[in-house]
């Protein structure tokens, strides 16, 4: 494949900060020549592809750092352009100096995601695979990473492309039947074929859409609000799940004044744990703000962990929280079971989990309940399954299903076949937006702008 002509871009591709190694990356037709101007060692323009070369980066006679320079020649590179990767020591000052030197010698600072955008524009990957690159970077659990890797390998692309090809063949057959009718009942035959094909396409897309719930959770995590009145053990539960003392724990009610957010991996499920300020009436201005934020977190949460104190009678505040969270995906936790139980369980749901955070009693039951609530106890991830996890992909699959419903509606109303096939064509176009074959330029630009600089 012939790549498009672009200028040469450069950026720091490793996180800024102190580290053993930092990488300054260049991509473009002049990448090797530009790097050769500032590299003392071998002549990079004469180096074989996919080699690592020892030397120094120097600004005239001033040596900036001792480096290893990777030379990769097109088309067998990430962008299908010539690529240089300067492996330097991972300090902010030295990486910035080398980048500025590269820019002064003819490269342009890359835009966010521009390396991956070039890989897409040069046919190295399609749009869904490009999005999978960022999913791999952002993956918070091994399960989320596995889904992203499968998407990068083309599992979703292959399924979508195969379906689009079958739709195209169906449309071609409809055109043949319309233009070259050999039988009197050609319209009846064409209608029957369209119904059968539409049913098959709907079944495939509906099955794919069923994976969206799991996939989206594994990609983005469950927003999990830990709620309860003050001093029932919310922060202790957060600290236990995190395995560190992130939240301050005291016997003083109202210690948590604001919402604390942290990610944790629970049995392969990323949970965005939100430790809220205890919801109660208060005159403290700061605490009052925290309580309002807690109510907002409750409204927006995918999962609610309501913590009650088994060592105290049920209060009006407890009853209020039980009512507020009744329609949520809720797990009620009865904490402090290591102390004498004084709470009346008659007013509590039958499926309450009795725990003691202080000695980790029954904490594993929380994981089991989460699996039951969101994954129906059916194994978190099937190894060979193709998962929808991207909100954009999910929305497009839903639109494609609506277009297929329009095909059926048109057939039911007795509309001419050549009009009905407009909706079938629309299905083909919508699926093309997933892979980028039919995506508008504005969408492509917006998607890549979300990538990190240097990727």
From TrEMBL:
Enzyme class label: hydrolase
Binding site for K(+): 231, 250, 252, 255
UniProt cross-references to CDD domains, sorted A to Z: trmE, TrmE_N
Coiled-coil ranges (or none): none
Domain (TrmE-type G): residue spans on this chain: 221-375
EC number: 3.6.-.-
Protein localization: Cytoplasm
A GO biological-process term: tRNA wobble uridine modification
Residues that coordinate or bind Mg(2+): 235, 256
A cellular component annotation (GO) from this entry: cytosol
Textual note on the cofactor: Binds 1 potassium ion per subunit.
A GO molecular function held by the record: metal ion binding
Keyword set, alphabetical order: Cytoplasm, GTP-binding, Hydrolase, Magnesium, Metal-binding, Nucleotide-binding, Potassium, tRNA processing
Positions contributing to GTP binding: 231-236, 250-256, 275-278
Chief place where the protein resides: cytoplasm
Keyword Methyltransferase part of the UniProt annotation: no
Cofactor(s) needed: K(+)
Residue sites binding (6S)-5-formyl-5,6,7,8-tetrahydrofolate per the record: 25, 85, 124, 455
Subunit structure: Homodimer. Heterotetramer of two MnmE and two MnmG subunits.
Function of the protein: Exhibits a very high intrinsic GTPase hydrolysis rate. Involved in the addition of a carboxymethylaminomethyl (cmnm) group at the wobble position (U34) of certain tRNAs, forming tRNA-cmnm(5)s(2)U34.
Family: Belongs to the TRAFAC class TrmE-Era-EngA-EngB-Septin-like GTPase superfamily. TrmE GTPase family.
Protein name, as recorded: tRNA modification GTPase MnmE
Gene this chain is encoded by: mnmE
């Amino acid at each position: 494949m012939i790549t498009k002509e672009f200028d040469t871009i450069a950026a720091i591709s490793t996180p800024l900060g102190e580290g053993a190694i930092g990488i300054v990356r260049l991509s473009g037709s002049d990448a090797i020549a530009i790097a050769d101007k500032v590299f003392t060692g071998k002549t990079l323009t004469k180096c074989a592809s996919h080699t690592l070369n020892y030397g120094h980066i120097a600004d005239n006679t001033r040596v900036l750092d001792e480096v290893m320079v990777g030379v990769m020649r097109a088309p067998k590179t990430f962008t299908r352009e010539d690529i240089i990767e300067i492996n330097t020591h991972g300090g902010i000052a030295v990486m910035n100096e080398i980048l500025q030197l590269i820019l002064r010698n003819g490269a342009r600072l890359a835009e966010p995601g521009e390396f991956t955008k070039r890989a897409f524009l040069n046919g190295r990957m399609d749009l869904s695979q490009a999005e999978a690159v960022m999913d791999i970077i952002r993956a918070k659990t091994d399960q989320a990473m596995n889904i992203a890797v499968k998407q990068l390998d083309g599992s979703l692309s292959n399924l979508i492309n195969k379906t689009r090809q079958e739709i195209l063949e169906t449309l071609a057959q409809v055109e043949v039947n319309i233009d070259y009718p050999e039988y009197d009942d050609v319209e009846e035959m064409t209608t029957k074929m369209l119904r059968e094909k539409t049913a098959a396409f709907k079944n495939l897309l509906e099955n794919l859409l069923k994976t969206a719930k799991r996939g989206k959770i594994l990609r983005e995590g469950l927003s999990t609000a830990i709620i309860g009145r003050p001093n029932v053990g919310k922060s202790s539960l957060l600290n236990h799940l995190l395995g560190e003392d992130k939240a301050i724990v005291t016997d003083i009610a109202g210690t948590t004044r604001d919402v604390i957010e942290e990610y944790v991996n629970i049995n392969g499920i990323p949970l965005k744990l939100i430790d809220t300020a205890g919801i109660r009436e208060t005159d403290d201005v700061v605490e009052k703000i925290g309580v309002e934020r807690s109510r907002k977190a409750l409204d927006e949460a995918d999962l609610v962990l309501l913590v009650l104190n088994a060592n105290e009678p049920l209060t009006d505040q407890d009853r209020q929280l039980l009512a507020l969270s009744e329609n949520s995906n809720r797990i009620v936790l009865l904490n402090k079971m290591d102390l004498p139980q004084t709470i009346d369980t008659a007013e509590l749901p039958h499926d309450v989990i009795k725990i003691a955070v202080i000695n980790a009693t029954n904490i594993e039951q929380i994981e089991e309940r989460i699996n039951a609530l969101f994954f129906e106890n059916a194994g978190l991830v099937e190894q060979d399954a193709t998962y929808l996890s991207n909100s954009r992909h999910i929305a497009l699959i839903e639109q494609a299903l609506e277009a297929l419903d329009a095909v059926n509606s048109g057939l039911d109303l007795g509309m001419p076949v050549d009009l009905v096939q407009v909706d079938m064509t629309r299905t083909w176009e919508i699926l093309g937006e997933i892979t980028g074959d039919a995506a508008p330029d504005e969408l492509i630009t917006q998607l890549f702008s979300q990538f990190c600089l240097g990727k």
